[in-house]
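help with this.
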Amino acid sequence: MIKDIVVGLAVDTGRDVAADYAISVSAAFRAHVTAVGFAYEPMLPAADVGNVIPFDFIDAQREANKKAATDAIARFKEAARLAGVSAETRLIEASAAGAGGVFGRIARSFDLSIVGQADPDAARDERLVEGALFESGRPVLVFPYIQRAGLTLERVMACWDGSRNAARAFNDAMPFLARAKAVDVVTVAGDKSKADVIEGVDIAQHLARHGLKVDLRKITAGDTDVTNAILSDAADRGADFIVMGGYGHSRLREFILGGATRGILASMTVPTLMSH
């Protein structure tokens, strides 16, 4: 069940897609949603040798960042009020580098975290997504920065490779799969795969025992990579939601994303639920 959601707000835009999308998910599941707005610590420019950055500059940037977070929270509160969903907010001061870890630890106390894809035009990175995925122990729902519609579940693509992370994602996604009008369980194979071997039968049967009707399909990556194969198939089939495992590992406390995970986060076209 999904009854408690946390969302990381975008604090550098006028219209916050994160707030709108999280509110739509909250309304669909009648869940409480908590919005976190980060007031980032000042990003100091490199100073010339012998020069000191004025305190006035630092204080002005700190106040501007805090105002941006406060404004984002105010917009979220109004949107939640208009939608009639149960909501609360938190204002947290953190460095840009440390915000991901803070958000991941916060998300441990929620059923689901929602984070927007890094927007290249806004110079945002993936650290908030990585923190939620690798630090929280909870599923994270990432939506494209170009997302405009709220939650829709006309056709869900669930990517299966038999791994632990995929199994975790399928289980975490069950509330979404149960609401979907159609579910495609998709496996991705290379050119050298055996054509007569159909992977994913067991997980399709498992979903069927939960009352879900699924279409089991195998797609071939061919000359392209796994990311493009998944996104191309999603577009061809009209999928509006993807479920997949989130892959990566930690090296010296820095998260290194797996190839497919990084590819989807960079090129995603529909909201994607990931679990690690």
Summary: Residues 55-83 form the longest helix (29 residues). The two ends are 18 Å apart (CA to CA).
